[in-house]
TrEMBL record:
It holds the Pfam family Septum_form. Transmembrane segments: none annotated. Coiled coil: none annotated. The lineage of its organism: Bacteria, Bacillati, Actinomycetota, Actinomycetes, Propionibacteriales. This is Septum formation-related domain-containing protein. Residues 1-25, 49-75 are annotated as: Disordered. Residues 53-68 have a biased composition (Low complexity). Residues 155-296 form the Septum formation-related domain.
Length: 302
């Protein structure tokens, strides 16, 4: 896999120290494979005058050439694979596809071509502009595949990973990338996927199965992030956008977000005098990757 989505926890799912649970009774969350530039080696033999040949012999020359091996074909589109988490976060893979009717954990949602020339320069596939190009194309493929609105996708445990050619294959001219849909069941664990994934977040109750839930409040030491189809006691109910200019874990932005989460719980709670909620900042890795929203959590005894 060439890339990961830090906003959804693929970089470790560690939670920021600012996650707090509030209660109120009185008032109503790369590609490391390197594409090397092809060096054109010009071999030029120069001589002056005509070569002398023996009158009793004839001169002949032959050059043995061997064609460079062709790059391997791109991976198949719309294939399924039964990968574990460790295999899904590698830069490349040689695992064969499995029938989509059998158990599998990843589904290929796009196969495309890397565009390594940026602003007239040939870049390695691990250069930031190339990584961003592939990440953007895979994220767009994810949105088109699973459907739902942006809020639903933010709250789901569905994300995208991508693979690229090996170093040897990229040297031979392979320029493909592969985007795979995955579902995070828990920390470093993938959930099985259904045979048909097109539009799964557009279905009624999609987040009951694919949403982000927790085994406890995100502020608790025993908290583990799990997919909502597994046993849980808290649920990520909504997202709160943070100001673009806010400092990470900034007090003013955190207080405003905390107030917004209070309002979310006030609308859901059966007793408006007994509210419990928690606002969770994005992880530092997700923040550095550009995520500017946090999660509002409330208890969910389902």
């Amino acid at each position: 896999m060439g890339g990961r989505e830090p906003a959804l926890g693929l970089l470790g799912e560690d939670r920021p120290m600012s996650a707090r649970t509030r209660t109120t009774r009185a008032r109503p969350g790369l590609l490391p494979a390197v594409l090397l530039a092809v060096l054109l080696l010009g071999l030029t033999a120069c001589s002056s005058g005509k070569p002398e040949a023996s009158p009793s012999t004839s001169s002949s020359s032959s050059t043995a050439t061997s064609a460079a091996p062709a790059p391997p074909a791109p991976p198949p589109a719309h294939a399924c694979y039964d990968l574990d988490f460790a295999a899904a976060v590698k830069a490349t893979t040689t695992e064969p596809p499995v029938p989509c009717s059998s158990a599998h954990t990843t589904t290929t949602i796009r196969v495309g071509t890397i565009r390594p020339v940026v602003d007239g320069h040939l870049l390695a596939v691990d250069a930031d502009p190339v990584q961003q190009q592939i990440a953007g194309r895979c994220r767009r493929a994810l949105a088109a595949q699973v459907g739902g609105d942006e809020e639903t996708r933010r709250l789901s445990r569905l994300t995208v990973v991508w693979f690229s050619p090996s170093l040897t294959d990229s040297d031979r001219g392979a320029l493909w990338f592969r985007c795979d849909l995955v579902a995070l069941a828990g920390h470093d664990v993938l959930a099985p996927l259904p045979r048909v994934t097109r539009g799964i977040l557009s279905q009624d109750g999609a987040l009951d199965r694919w949403g982000t839930c927790g085994t406890a409040s995100p502020a608790a030491s025993r908290f583990e992030r799990v997919i909502c189809s597994q046993p849980h006691s808290w649920r990520a109910r909504a997202t709160v956008d943070l100001p673009a200019g806010a400092a990470y874990l900034g007090k003013a932005a955190g207080a405003a977000a905390d107030s917004a989460c209070h309002d979310v719980d006030a609308k859901l709670a059966a007793d408006s005098l007994k509210l419990h909620w928690s606002f969770e900042w994005p992880t530092k890795d997700a923040w550095n990757a550009g995520q500017r929203y946090g999660l509002c959590w409330t208890p969910d005894p389902a």
